[in-house]
C-alpha cells in the first residue's frame, strides 16, 4: 500500500511531531507499506494519508479527501489540537477530524477533548521508546534532574530551574536542560538563568544520543508542561527507569495513570521543589516512583506500538 505521511514543518528535526512521524514511517515500512513523508500534500496518488496534527495539516487533509474521497485518512491529534486549537481556532481542527476515517491520540484521557460524535473513530497509540544502550547509572557528583524538551511557552520550561532555587543550601540538585529555544526571548531567559542560578545548566538542542546519556545519569526527570498530547519523553524516561515528576495535566496523567505519586499542580514551583527534595533525600519515595514508572513501561514497548498500527490499518476499508 502507498501511504503519504504528512508532518508539519518545524524549527528543528527533533520536534515531537517530526520524531513521531519518523518513527511511524519506520513502523509502517516494517509492516510492508511504501511510505512517503512530506510537509504538504502535492496531489500524487496514495492509498492512505496519515496526517500529523489536525490544525497544521488541515489543508493537506482537505486536498487529499477532495482528490480521493473514498480513500482513508488517519489524523493524529497533537496536544495543541485538542487542548488549544479546538478552542481558539476550531474550524480547521474540527474539519480535519470530521474528514478523518480514524483519529489517533497519544494518551488515554484524550477522548475527553474529542467531540462525542467522533469518539468511535478514536484510537490511542502510545509512543514507544527503546531501552538505554547501557545500564542506567545516576551521577554520583550531583542529584541530576533532567528537563528534556524545547523551550516554548506551553512547556513552562524553566519551572524546574525556579524550583531548584528554593532548595536548601546543602542540596546537590542540578537541573540539566536540553532542547532548542523556540524564540530569542526564551534563549535569553535560559542564559540569564544559568548566570543567576548555579543549580541550572541549559545545553540547547542536542543529538538523540546525548539525550539518552543524560537520562542514563539522571536521578529524575521533570515535565512541567501546561498541556501535552502525550510526550514521548515520558515513554523514554519510563523505559529507562527514571523517576518522573510531572505536572498534573491530562496528557501526563493519561500516560502515567491517575495514581502516579509524582505529580505537582501546574505552575506550582513550591510543590515541585518539595518533590525535588524528596527525590534527592527520600530513598523510599524514589523506590515508589521507580516502581510506578516500571509498571507503565510496558505500554511503551516498540512491538506494542507496531501492533497498534497494524490493528488500525486492518480496520480501514479501501476502495
Provide a concise account of the structure shown.
The chain is built from 12 helices and 12 strands. It is of the alpha/beta class and 319 residues long. The model has no long low-confidence stretch (mean pLDDT 95).
Topology:
Elements: E1 2-6, H1 16-30, E2 34-38, E3 48-52, H2 58-67, E4 73-76, H3 79-88, H4 90-99, E5 102-105, E6 122-124, E7 143-148, H5 159-164, E8 173-178, H6 184-196, E9 200-202, H7 208-216, E10 220-223, H8 232-240, E11 244-247, H9 250-256, E12 263-264, H10 269-281, H11 283-297, H12 302-314
Parallel strand pairs: 1-2, 1-3, 3-4, 4-5, 5-6, 7-8, 7-10, 8-9, 10-11, 11-12
Low-confidence runs:
none
Alpha carbon gyration radius: 20 Å
The SSE order reads: EHEEHEHHEEEHEHEHEHEHEHHH
Q: Please report the total strand number as a whole number.
A: 12
CATH topology of the largest domain: Rossmann fold
Give the count of structural domains: 2
Mean pLDDT over the residues: 95
Please write the CATH class name of the largest domain. Answer: Alpha Beta
Helical coverage, percent range: 40-55%
Amino acid at each position: 500500500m502507498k501511504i503519504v505521511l504528512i508532518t508539519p514543518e518545524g524549527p528543528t528535526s527533533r520536534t515531537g511531531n517530526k520524531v513521531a512521524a519518523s518513527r511511524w514511517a519506520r513502523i509502517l515500512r516494517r509492516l510492508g507499506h511504501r511510505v512517503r513523508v512530506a510537509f504538504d500534500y502535492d496531489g500524487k496518488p496514495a492509498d492512505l494519508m496519515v496526517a500529523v496534527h489536525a490544525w497544521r495539516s488541515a489543508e493537506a487533509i482537505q486536498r487529499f479527501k477532495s482528490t480521493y474521497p473514498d480513500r482513508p485518512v488517519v489524523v493524529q491529534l497533537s496536544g495543541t489540537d485538542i487542548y488549544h486549537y479546538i478552542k481558539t481556532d476550531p474550524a480547521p481542527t474540527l474539519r480535519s477530524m470530521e474528514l478523518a476515517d480514524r483519529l489517533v491520540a497519544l494518551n488515554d484521557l484524550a477522548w475527553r477533548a474529542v467531540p462525542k460524535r467522533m469518539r468511535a473513530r478514536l484510537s490511542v497509540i502510545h509512543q514507544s521508546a527503546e531501552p538505554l544502550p547501557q545500564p542506567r547509572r545516576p551521577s554520583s557528583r550531583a542529584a541530576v534532574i533532567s528537563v528534556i524538551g524545547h523551550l516554548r511557552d506551553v512547556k513552562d520550561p524553566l519551572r524546574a530551574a525556579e524550583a531548584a532555587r528554593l532548595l536548601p543550601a546543602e542540596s546537590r540538585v542540578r537541573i540539566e536542560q536540553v532542547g532548542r529555544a523556540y524564540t530569542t526571548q526564551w534563549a535569553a531567559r535560559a542564559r540569564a538563568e544559568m548566570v543567576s542560578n548555579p543549580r541550572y545548566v541549559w545545553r540547547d538542542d542536542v543529538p538523540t544520543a546525548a539525550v539518552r546519556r543524560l537520562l542514563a545519569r539522571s536521578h529524575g526527570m521533570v515535565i512541567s508542561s501546561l498541556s501535552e498530547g502525550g510526550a514521548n519523553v515520558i515513554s523514554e524516561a519510563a523505559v529507562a527507569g527514571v523517576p518522573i515528576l510531572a505536572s498534573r495535566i491530562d496528557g501526563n496523567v493519561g500516560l502515567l495513570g491517575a495514581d502516579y505519586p509524582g505529580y505537582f499542580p501546574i505552575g506550582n514551583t513550591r510543590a515541585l521543589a518539595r518533590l525535588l527534595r524528596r527525590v534527592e533525600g527520600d530513598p523510599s519515595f524514589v523506590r515508589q516512583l521507580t516502581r510506578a514508572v516500571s509498571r507503565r513501561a510496558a505500554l511503551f514497548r516498540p512491538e506494542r506500538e507496531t501492533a497498534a498500527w497494524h490493528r488500525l490499518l486492518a480496520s480501514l476499508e479501501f476502495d
